[in-house]
Structure formats: structure tokens, C-alpha cells
Amino acid sequence: MITALDERTALILIDLQKAITQRPIPAMPVVVKNAAALAAAFRKASLPVIVVNVNPANAKWTSSRKDTQATATVADPEGIAITPEINVQSSDILITKHTWGAFFETGLHEILQKLRVTGIVLAGVATSIGVEGTARQASELAYNLSFAEDAMTDAFPEAHAHSLKYIFPRIGEVGTTAGIIEKLSSAAAG
Predict the structure, then answer these.
(1) In the chain, what is the greatest distance between 2 CA atoms, to the nearest angstrom?
(2) CA–CA separation, 104 vs 48, rounded Å?
(3) Could you tell me which residues are beta bridge partners of residue 95?
(4) pLDDT tens for residues 54-90?
(5) For residues 51 and 68, what is the distance between their CA atoms, to the nearest angstrom?
(6) Nearest to residue 35, comparing CAs of 94, 97, 90, 86?
(7) 23 backbone dihedrals φ, ψ, rounded to 5°
(8) Torsions phi, psi of 13, nearest 5?
(9) What is the pLDDT of residues 91-119, one digit of tens each?
(10) Which residues contact 86 (CB under 8 A, 6 or more apart)?
């Protein structure tokens, strides 16, 4: 349950790009719908919305791997485009990451510092990879973290459940999209 959100909280949506959201993961339509609702609520509250995609093309880690599956040299521009349901706005901040976490070599921390952000709500795909990787980095940087459990999913249900049960409660609070929007609304009214 989310008990409170910082006055300066940003929403970070992880990897909700076409190549990922079009995968046959049963929860994906609900995740995208809830992520879009969070984005709309944060915009209404005049709080930052950070939309992150992943493009591993030519990333350093891909050249150090021995297996050929890790080599990514060309990114499909259509595949890395954010799914239209998120309704990206000109006020949103777009970040392209090349690793699991959204802070490594992206300038995200510096952007959040300039905006005086102290809290982050995380959502997106995959729970155990991009969301957890970003959460671990954000925790190391001392952000207060909240997780929208119904606005994230994973190709592996057991990995999703593990992150929600064992990792996220150790570094933040886990709640629902509705609960987070309620906290935003009550903060705006107060």
C-alpha cells in the first residue's frame, strides 16, 4: 500500500514501446491502460512524466557477451517507439536507455535533480528487468520509491511475483494505480 507520495514525485514508465507491448503477455493490455492512466494523472497534477524506452543497439554490454543472442546492432525505429496508448506529450521527458536501468549513462538523475524530484513512481515492463534495474539504481540514489503493481508485468510470472514480493517492499512501497492516483488527488486538494 502506498502511504504517501513526496510533493515532488515523478512518474517513470519503463519500456512501454511497441516491440515490447505487442508481445503476447496476458496482462499487457491492463498494464498499458493503467500506465496511461498514471501518466494522465501526473500530467494533471503538473508532475513530471518520464517515458523510457530501451535501445540496446551497440551498447557496450552487447559486445562483451559471448553468445550471439546478445548482439544488437540495429534498432527498429518503429519497435522502440512508445506505444500510442501512453499519449506522449511535449511536456514529457523522453529517455533512451541501453541497459536494464534507466539511470546508467542517460542523464536521468541530473534531470530529476534539476526538477527537485525526491520521489519516483515506477511502472512498465519487464518487472524483473527494466523496472527492477531502474528501481535498484534509484534506491542507490536515495529516491523515495513507489511501485504501481498493476501497471507492470513480466514475460515470466514468477519473476514478476518475486520482484513484487521480495525486492520492491525492501526499497519502497507497492500499491495500485488507483491508490497512487488517489494519493495524487489528495495531495493536490490539500
Answers:
(1) 55
(2) 19
(3) 52
(4) 997 766 655 565 655 554 545 688 889 999 999 999 9
(5) 29
(6) 86
(7) -70, 150
(8) -100, 125
(9) 999 999 999 999 999 999 999 999 999 99
(10) 13, 16, 32, 35, 36, 39, 51
